[in-house]
Recover the amino acids of this structure.
């Protein structure tokens, strides 16, 4: 069925309004605290720094509360969550250093709530709102469920706190809400616009029941919900203590100054960079199971004086599939890159940083889709691809500055190679989980150094992966290996960081197997491009081996170290597939690394030799891509290397066209 | 002069030259790589990192598209993209190095 516009869905689209407009709307129903413009000038530097760091510590405390209370490995061990503090009209004062994609749109949800919920059901002390509607904000797909709360002080709405986590299952056709065959949002978890889930400090059981009823693992989701309530409670207590100590005028003045400082310093940095336009394209191969179309997001980033314009004109129309993202996804693709690459020495106060940015994006495209386009995979699909394009443009711009260039980085892990398992665990309980091993990522190469092997991902500074043993303890699976993969980092003068692979079998489930959902683009082409001639990272590569002899091998005490050692039927998996794994099946998933920087023929041959010795680069790549010939003892053969590099250089221009 | 990246330098008159051999490559205000050598090959020529034949996953031809310095053969730009798609990776600067 084609995508047909749903009349009335316009209400649930975030519309940018000024703080003054929002204040005018909300102040009919609730008193909003504010300070005059002069207040921040009266704050002495020491008080400013003390309170600024205290606010930062509060988001850390919120993260700790989330991790301690959640029962989901995705949260407790992989940090796929974030927390934020906003001012009275929803401008983000700071976000935590966890998944910044998730927090990049919390302000949208808060502002929508101010506009649409201030009158009814109203905003009162002790209230909290739940939202997982990405058209409104608060997350990039429905699994990014957020809880945010107004903070009242002396009867005035002073600020907001917010927490958002990836939830492992919120319903929909397929386990994990990852409906790979889906063509629109109705295959997926139903988006919930902001609802008051806590009223006057009491969790509303009717709202909670409505929320949990949709999940395949409601107890786990209930625990995560309480973790988010707890994180907001922590924030509210700490913020109240801070205001008690310093007074509301001083604390609010610091909040405003944090955003103003971030804006001022980012504008100054932008002015130090040349004016210009940089273009990029980010692809995705397949929008759903059975689809082999390649889709593109096109970006022209223009920097003029102290402003950045991200223009996505030319991006493909939204598609019948689940890879689209909403405007929240565009922001989620922009803000983490701007913060890590441009604001590495500037406070991460998105409310100020957003003032330096303009986004041009046509509604109805794959990274600004309209209801009811499918968005179940938005976070690691079109939002991620947006991020790739933004990363490429910002890095090239930053790379022109003699000092700032050190912050430039080639694209990190171009996509998330998702494996989602579901079934009955070794304790006989239903389970669903997203395997977060790709969180290990692989960072892009820098202008003066290699990318960090399995160094994570730029938008999730505090991302991590669960120990193999934690995954095996938590889920009915047994690893054959998890490791960094040879040649997975993009070649270059500086090599992209390696990605990795995991290989496992179902283990100890009463069902003798598990359900498997695979969702991984980047198989037809790599999605982490390099810079300055550097090559892209490896492609994603997933293989399912059916009917293997692996259990016989294990019974004999032999653990296979590669797929070639295993007998069985070898299936190279497409980008999207849903299937079952039987007891004798083996699944291998290989995620991408980072892009390279510079010409690989200019890489120090000694570094290539070290790479080959440490299995980071294969002898074939050393010869064919780096032009480095090694002796039998692994050392560089200087004369044949010089000859090989000369041969490769001649081949480049002889076969090319001017 | 402005060092644009590992291989490209912008001179005071707006010309982009190869950092390594000083060959003139183009103008920053128009096409900075106008005189570069362009070459397209099957994507698997990018090395063993391209694991499987793209034909397994798409009907479109996927190519390794590169631009080289005509003077010293340094690779200046690399992308792996559908072969029937133009390059979207254009850039230009509004200012010459002396105007910075």
């Amino acid at each position: 069925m084609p995508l047909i516009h749903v009349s009335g869905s316009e209400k649930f689209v975030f519309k940018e309004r000024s703080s003054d407009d929002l204040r005018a709307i909300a102040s009919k129903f609730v008193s909003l605290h504010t300070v005059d413009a002069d207040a921040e000038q009266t704050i002495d530097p020491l008080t400013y720094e003390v309170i600024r760091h205290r606010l930062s510590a509060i988001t850390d405390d919120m993260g700790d509360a989330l991790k301690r209370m959640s029962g989901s490995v995705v949260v407790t061990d992989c940090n796929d969550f974030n927390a934020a503090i906003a001012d009275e009209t929803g401008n983000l004062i700071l976000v935590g250093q966890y998944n910044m994609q998730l927090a990049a749109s919390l302000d949208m949800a808060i502002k929508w709530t101010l506009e649409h919920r201030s009158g009814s059901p109203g905003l009162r002390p002790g209230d909290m709102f739940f939202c997982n509607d990405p058209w409104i904000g608060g997350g990039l797909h429905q699994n990014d469920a957020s809880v945010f709360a107004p903070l009242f002080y002396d009867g005035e709405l002073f600020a907001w706190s917010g927490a958002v986590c990836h939830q492992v299952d919120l319903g929909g056709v397929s386990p994990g809400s990852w409906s790979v065959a889906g063509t629109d949002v109705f295959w997926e978890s139903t988006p919930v616009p902001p609802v008051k889930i806590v009223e006057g400090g009491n969790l509303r059981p009717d709202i909670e029941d409505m929320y949990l009823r949709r999940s395949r693992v409601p107890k786990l989701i209930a625990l995560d919900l309480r973790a988010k309530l707890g994180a907001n409670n922590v924030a509210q207590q700490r913020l109240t203590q801070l205001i008690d100590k310093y007074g509301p005028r001083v604390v609010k003045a610091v909040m405003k100054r944090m955003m103003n400082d971030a804006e001022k310093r980012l504008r100054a940095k932008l002015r130090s960079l040349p004016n210009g336009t940089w273009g990029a394209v980010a692809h995705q191969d397949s929008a759903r199971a059975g689809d082999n179309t390649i889709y593109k997001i096109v970006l022209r980033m223009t920097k003029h004086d102290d402003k950045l314009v991200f223009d996505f004109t030319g991006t493909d129309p939204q598609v019948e599939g689940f890879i689209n993202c909403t405007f929240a996804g565009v922001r989620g693709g922009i803000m983490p890159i701007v913060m890590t690459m441009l604001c590495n020495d500037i406070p991460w106060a998105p409310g100020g940083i957003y003032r330096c940015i303009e986004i041009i994006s046509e509604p109805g495209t794959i990274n600004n889709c309209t209801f009811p386009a499918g968005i179940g995979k938005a976070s690691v699909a079109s939002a991620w691809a947006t991020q790739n394009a933004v990363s490429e443009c910002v890095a090239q711009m930053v790379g022109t500055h003699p000092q700032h260039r050190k912050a430039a980085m080639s694209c990190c892990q171009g996509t998330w190679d998702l494996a989602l398992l579901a079934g009955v665990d070794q304790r006989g309980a239903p389970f669903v989980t997203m395997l977060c091993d790709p969180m290990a990522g692989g960072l892009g190469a820098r202008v003066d150094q290699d990318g960090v092997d399995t160094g994570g991902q730029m938008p999730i500074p505090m991302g991590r992966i669960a120990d193999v043993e934690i995954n095996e303890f938590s889920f009915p699976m047994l690893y054959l290996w998890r490791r960094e993969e040879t040649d997975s980092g993009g070649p270059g003068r500086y090599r992209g960081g390696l990605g990795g692979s995991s290989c496992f079998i179902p283990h100890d489930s009463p069902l003798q197997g598990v359900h498997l959902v695979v969702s991984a683009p980047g198989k037809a082409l790599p999605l982490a491009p390099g810079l300055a001639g550097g090559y892209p990272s490896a492609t994603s590569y997933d293989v399912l081996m059916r009917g293997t002899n692996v259990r016989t091998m294990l019974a004999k005490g032999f653990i296979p170290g590669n797929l070639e050692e295993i007998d069985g039927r070898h299936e190279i998996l497409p980008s999207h597939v849903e299937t079952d794994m039987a007891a004798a099946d083996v699944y291998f998933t290989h995620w991408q690394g980072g892009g390279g920087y510079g010409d690989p023929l200019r890489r120090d041959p000694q570094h290539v030799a070290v790479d080959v010795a440490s299995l980071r680069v294969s002898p074939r790549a050393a010869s064919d891509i780096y032009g480095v010939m090694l002796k039998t003892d692994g050392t560089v053969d200087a004369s044949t290397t010089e000859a090989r590099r000369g041969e490769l250089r001649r081949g480049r221009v002889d076969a090319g066209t001017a | 002069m402005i060092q644009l990246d590992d291989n490209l330098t912008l001179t005071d008159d707006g010309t982009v030259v190869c950092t390594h051999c000083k060959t003139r490559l183009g103008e920053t205000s128009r096409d900075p790589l106008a005189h570069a050598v362009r070459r397209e090959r099957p994507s698997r020529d990018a090395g063993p990192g391209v694991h499987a034949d793209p034909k397994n996953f798409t009907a479109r031809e996927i190519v390794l598209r590169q631009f080289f310095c005509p003077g010293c053969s340094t690779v200046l730009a690399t992308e792996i993209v559908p072969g029937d798609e133009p390059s979207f990776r254009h850039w230009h600067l509004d200012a010459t190095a002396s105007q910075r």
Notes: The radius of gyration of chain A is 25 Å.
